[in-house]
Write a structure and sequence with these properties.
Pfam families: DUF1759. It comes from Nephila pilipes (Giant wood spider). InterPro entries: DUF1759. This protein has about 475 residues and is of the alpha+beta class. It is built from 16 helices and eleven strands. The chain has a six-stranded mixed β-barrel. Strands 1-2 form a two-stranded antiparallel ribbon. A two-stranded antiparallel ribbon has the order 10-11. β7 and β8 form a beta hairpin. α2 packs antiparallel against α3 and α9 runs antiparallel to α12. It is elongated.
């Protein structure tokens, strides 16, 4: 028989095997199949796959390099699809609860009249063990491999090829691409494991990954109870992982405690410092710190739940209708000193103050020189205080507007109370009417108020146009800033 005839016979045999595999695949995908049908068809599919692999190898012996390169791609693709179907069917079978019958205690008469009652069959339903897909996060590899090793790798009832199929099915993203070049066979299973362990199983790298994460925590921006709880749980999980890897987390206290604490709101940080001093604890005691954070977060969640349970049954009005406080106009400005140093800050405009003031911190930042000294009478609640203070000259430029104003102000070491930016409803209204707000609600709304523009320069920037009335107690006052 010629080589061409042998090759033709082998290809016909391969076509027959592929047809049989396609039919079995259709049966496995049938949603009406019973568990017994699935197991039977999966076993037959495995046999046909083994026969197909042998047929492919025999065909490849007759092909040249170019033909082999083209044929092997098609073979691998066909084999991958069939193995994936096998994996899914076996995974589906494994997710079914394992029912193990206990040994039955038989009843048979013995010598004498003593009879032992025969209890009914007892069925024990075992919980399903889930193995999460591994995406290449080195910190997750230890947990992933422990489960996979105990459930699949050490399972003697599974063949090497089955274990390899299961392993590849639990890989995704970066780690999946890492081993894509390795064919799924029983011989390459050990190679795949070694590649994964070499890349992700280094204990020192896993420890360093946990430490790097804790050292580079981002301070929380939304101090909501859920966000605080998520941050705490994440930190605690990392510390527990370090402990499971044999690391003494307490020895990292001086490094990690400040990093973890910095990620929480300032109020919690202050509470920890006070608590540590009162209880005579080291601020770097990471065990005590995590216990303290747990109680703080739990208290925040409890308080929020209590607050949520007291919501009134009557409808809540919009913030515009509920905004019944008197708020002074506030704007954002770029302040420039005589040396050209510029800083963005917030400015309070108050026509009731006869003089303008600038904070001492801003004076130091801009290196403002004293241009003169004058008398200053301070009066509040029937208290009159006469002092002499220095005056400073500076320019301010409205944020986003080409307007430059020269101002002379007294230095003040007092800090202005924080003022909220424009309410959400006001921002929406301004956007719909294409109005520019002098102090919009955005990421810069937390800037401190460091300047007060009094009556001496108030009308240099305020307009005489009629205010835009929003409610009985709230209006937008037009100015050069918006």
């Amino acid at each position: 028989m010629s080589t061409t005839e042998k090759l033709s016979i082998l290809k016909r045999k391969r076509t027959t095997l592929r047809t049989a595999i396609t039919k079995l695949s259709t049966k496995l995908n049938d949603s009406n199949s019973t568990q017994a049908d699935i197991e039977f068809n999966a076993e037959r599919l495995q046999i046909k796959l083994n026969e197909l692999t042998l047929a492919d190898d025999e065909i490849h012996d007759f092909l040249n390099d170019q033909e082999y390169s083209e044929d092997i791609i098609e073979c691998e693709k066909y084999s991958e699809n069939a193995h994936l179907l096998l994996f899914n069917s076996k995974k589906k079978a494994n997710t079914s609860a394992a029912i193990l019958p206990c040994s039955r205690i038989g009843s048979s008469p013995t010598s004498g009249s003593i009879h032992y009652a025969s209890p009914p069959n007892v069925m024990v339903k075992l919980p399903t063990v889930n193995i999460n897909t591994f995406y290449g996060e080195i910190e997750e590899f230890h947990s992933f491999w422990e489960r996979f090793e105990n459930c699949i790798d050490k399972n003697e009832s599974l063949s090497q090829i089955d274990k390899h199929v299961f392993l590849r099915g639990y890989l995704d993203a970066e780690v999946k691409r890492l081993v894509d070049g390795i064919s799924i066979t029983s011989d390459t299973y050990t190679m795949t494991k070694e590649v994964l362990k070499s890349k992700y199983g280094n204990k020192d790298k896993i420890i360093q990954a946990h430490l790097d994460y804790l050292e580079n925590l981002t301070p929380i921006k939304d101090p909501s109870p859920s966000a605080l709880n998520e941050l705490y749980m994440d930190c605690n999980r990392r510390l527990q992982a370090l402990g499971a890897l044999g690391e003494k987390t307490q020895s990292y206290g001086r490094i990690l405690a400040p990093k973890i604490l910095r990620a929480f709101p300032h109020e919690i940080c202050r509470n920890w410092v006070v608590y540590a001093k009162r209880e005579n604890l080291a601020e770097s005691d990471i065990t005590k710190l995590m216990k303290f954070l747990s109680e703080e977060v739990e208290g925040t969640i409890t308080a929020n739940n209590i607050k949520g349970s007291l919501v009134p049954s009557y409808p809540i009005k919009s913030s515009l209708e509920n905004f019944n406080v008197h708020s002074r106009p506030i704007t954002r400005v770029f302040i420039t000193g005589p040396n050209g140093i510029t800083k963005l800050t917030r400015c309070l405009l108050d026509g009731g103050s006869q003089s303008s003031f600038i904070s001492s911190d801003l004076v130091d930042t801009l290196n403002l020189p004293v241009i003169s000294t004058g008398p200053l009478d301070l009066q509040a609640f029937e208290l009159v205080l006469a002092i002499s203070d220095g005056q400073f000259n500076f320019n301010y430029l409205a944020s986003g507007i080409k307007l430059k104003v020269n101002v002379i102000a007294f230095e003040s070491s007092n800090r202005y109370a924080s003022h909220p930016s424009s309410p959400t409803d006001v921002s929406r209204l301004a956007k719909s009417k294409r109005m520019k707000l002098a102090d919009p609600d955005d990421t810069l709304s937390s800037l401190p108020i460091e300047i007060l523009i009094g009556a001496d320069f108030y009308w240099n920037v305020m307009h005489s146009d009629a205010p835009v009335k929003l409610s009985d107690s709230l209006a937008l006052v037009p100015s050069s800033f918006g």
